[in-house]
Design brief:
Helix content: 25-40%
Radius of gyration: 23 Å
Shape: elongated
Largest sheet: 6 strands, mixed
Mean pLDDT: 93
Structural class: alpha+beta
CATH class of the largest domain: Alpha Beta
Strand content: 25-35%
Distance between the termini: 37 Å
Number of domains: 2
CATH topology of the largest domain: Aminopeptidase
Strand order of the largest sheet: 1-2-6-3-7-17
CATH superfamily of the largest domain: Zn peptidases
């Protein structure tokens, strides 16, 4: 495990958050440099977010397999960028989501890419939507037959993940002195009623459920005083939806906004809309990956993820992408850690899969098709 922990500690110590472009580049350069010489490195940048695609010299794609990893993390207090090992766990921001997987993928790529026409895709904006990393590279023509994204999965294979909608609800009223509320119209009260209607339509499940969920992320008014009836109010909502939800799946931003207005009775707008993702669980590629996982002693179970990931950009082009990553817990939280005992089997499973991929791709039901 030492061969992973030293390099991972260096990478975790870089606070590669969206508001620190120099640190995004430092993290990217550290991994690219670690791959070593002898590979082509294609650099990209969009809206200040750098990314890279590594492959054997002369390869142009479509690549039969792309290994995709993001190196950006969500913000955290400075102490979380000081990695700490406790037994088989390494704690720190980004250990699990997903710098450990990125380093393992880079190692696997270095060991096999001279013999196999695969690519390593490194991006720095997944935590803020992915449009300037994976999305931008695809817009520039990068294509794959099959994609493995190293997001955390506990050595299981994620073939389905939810879509994401970021929306704003807004209300207007009439300002008045708080001592005379009957003279005003409280916009915040109207907004809270709208949120109640939205949550009644999409209630928070009592336990994990493959259903549409709504998180109220922020509620605010422009008020600067206690003794004023607010004349305006707004709320941010984060909606996650499975592929089968016709209220959101396959609809445009304007159609979703109209739906939210109908449900809540107030003004609604959509800031971001990302489709759900699904890969064929019976394809030769997925079957081959699961067999490789079993060969290193893990069951290779299928998993659905409630969070969105960059696989949706590939899914939109008809390219199968799955999530497959190591074990751990606490991503985005104060106790995030990676399970160090899963890194070696993760590495070995990826190598086993890639070594068998040409046969799997050409077999019945193979899905190594260009997008």
């Amino acid at each position: 495990m030492t061969r992973w922990t030293d390099r991972l500690a260096d990478l975790v110590a870089i606070p590669s958050t969206a508001d620190r472009p120099a640190d995004l580049r430092r993290a990217l350069d550290l991994v690219v440099t670690g791959v070593g010489d002898g590979f082509a490195v294609r650099r990209f940048e969009s809206n200040g977010k750098p990314s890279a695609l590594l492959h054997a010299p002369g390869a142009t794609g479509p690549f039969p397999v792309v290994l995709n990893a993001h190196l950006d993390v969500v913000p955290a207090p400075p102490a979380q960028f000081v990695p700490r090992r406790d037994g088989d766990r390494l704690y720190g921001r980004g250990t699990h989501d997903m710098k450990a997987a990125a380093l393992v993928m880079a190692d696997v790529f270095r060991s096999v890419a001279r013999d196999l026409p695969i690519a390593l895709q490194l991006v720095t904006d997944e935590e803020v939507g992915g449009a300037d990393g994976t999305g931008h590279q695809l817009a520039e023509g990068v294509r794959a037959g099959f994609v493995v994204i190293g997001e955390q999965s506990g050595l299981r294979v994620v073939t389905e993940s939810k879509g994401i909608c970021h929306a704003r609800l807004t209300t207007t009223g009439r300002a008045a002195h708080a001592a005379y509320p009957w003279l005003g119209d409280n916009a915040l009260v109207s907004l809270l009623g709208a949120l109640d209607r939205l949550l009644a339509r999409y209630p928070v499940p009592a336990a994990e459920a493959w259903a549409t969920t709504v998180n109220v992320a922020r509620v605010e008014t422009p008020n600067a005083a206690f003794n004023q009836v607010p004349a305006a109010a707004s709320a941010w909502v984060d909606i996650r939806y499975p592929p089968g939800d016709g209220d959101f799946s396959g609809r445009t931003g304007s159609e979703v906004a109209a739906h939210l207005r109908a449900v809540t009775g107030v003004s609604a707008s959509v800031d971001a809309l990302g489709p759900p993702h699904r890969a064929d669980p019976g394809s030769a590629a997925v079957t081959g990956l699961r067999e490789a996982i079993r060969s290193v002693g893990y069951p290779g179970d299928l998993l659905r993820k409630h969070g969105a990931a960059d696989g949706r950009y590939y899914h939109a082009l008809g390219i199968d992408a799955v999530i497959f990553g190591p074990g751990g817990d606490g991503q985005h939280g104060p106790d995030e850690y990676v399970d160090l005992t899963t890194l070696e089997p993760y590495h070995d499973a990826l190598r086993a899969f890639l070594s068998r991929w040409p046969a799997a791709a050409s077999g019945p039901g193979g899905s190594a098709r260009p997008g």
